[in-house]
């Protein structure tokens, strides 16, 4: 089922997600719905807070980005083959490498894109969708998508990483989003 995506301004986007266990009600269906919602919205990642669930769960499919790069672009991200993975109760263990800029957007903040600086590499501990403990290191675009989604389960948004002046210049657009004065090709849940 395609779920509505929570728009900027909704308090759930600022909540730190709580950990879940395998008894979380309807978890398997929730994960399936998150994949369907993400693909329907043309996203590459989706965190549970974005569908109004304040829990530590997100999904990432960076394969679609990597597969669409030309050969020269792929050389810019050595070692990044892309992933399609579920992350439950993720915790960052290590951030490494140089910070680099990339123009990010977010399904909860439609039609706003800004350059965000993030580290090249992230190591996470998490549970996969079979609740098997994982510890993996990700790099390049995949690391960036993971860090973006990880921010959501920490109550942060990509705009928190941009300079205050830029945020001030975005205020009107952000206000319009929170008031529902925006059109997108997917269902949104606006703050009341």
From TrEMBL:
Belongs to the polypeptide deformylase family. The keyword Isomerase does not apply. GO terms for molecular function: peptide deformylase activity. This is Peptide deformylase. Its EC number is 3.5.1.88. Pfam families: Pep_deformylase. It catalyses: N-terminal N-formyl-L-methionyl-[peptide] + H2O = N-terminal L-methionyl-[peptide] + formate. InterPro entries: Peptide_deformylase (IPR023635), Peptide_deformylase_sf (IPR036821). It comes from the Bacteria. Binds 1 Fe(2+) ion. The active site is at residue 149. HAMAP family: Pep_deformylase (MF_00163). Removes the formyl group from the N-terminal Met of newly synthesized proteins. Requires at least a dipeptide for an efficient rate of reaction. N-terminal L-methionine is a prerequisite for activity but the enzyme has broad specificity at other positions. Fe cation binds at residues 106, 148, 152. Keywords: Hydrolase, Iron, Metal-binding, Protein biosynthesis. It comes from Flavihumibacter fluminis. Its cofactor is Fe(2+).
């Amino acid at each position: 089922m395609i779920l509505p995506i929570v728009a900027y301004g909704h308090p759930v986007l600022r909540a730190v997600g709580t950990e879940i266990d395998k008894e979380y009600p309807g978890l398997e269906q929730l994960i399936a719905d998150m994949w369907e919602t993400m693909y329907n919205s043309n996203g590459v990642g989706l965190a549970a807070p974005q569908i109004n669930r304040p829990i530590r769960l997100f999904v990432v499919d960076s394969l679609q980005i990597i597969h669409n790069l030309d050969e020269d672009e792929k050389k810019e991200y050595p070692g990044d083959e892309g992933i399609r993975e579920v992350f439950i109760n993720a915790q960052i263990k290590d951030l490494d490498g140089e910070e680099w800029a990339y123009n990010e957007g977010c399904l909860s903040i439609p039609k706003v894109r800004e350059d965000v600086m993030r580290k090249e590499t992230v190591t996470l501990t998490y549970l996969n969708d079979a609740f098997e403990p994982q510890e993996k290191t990700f790099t390049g675009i995949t690391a960036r998508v993971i860090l973006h989604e990880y921010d959501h389960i920490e109550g942060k948004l990509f705009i928190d990483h941009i300079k205050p002046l830029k945020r001030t210049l975005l205020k009107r657009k952000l206000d319009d989003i929170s008031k529902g004065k925006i059109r997108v090709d997917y269902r949104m849940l606006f703050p009341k």
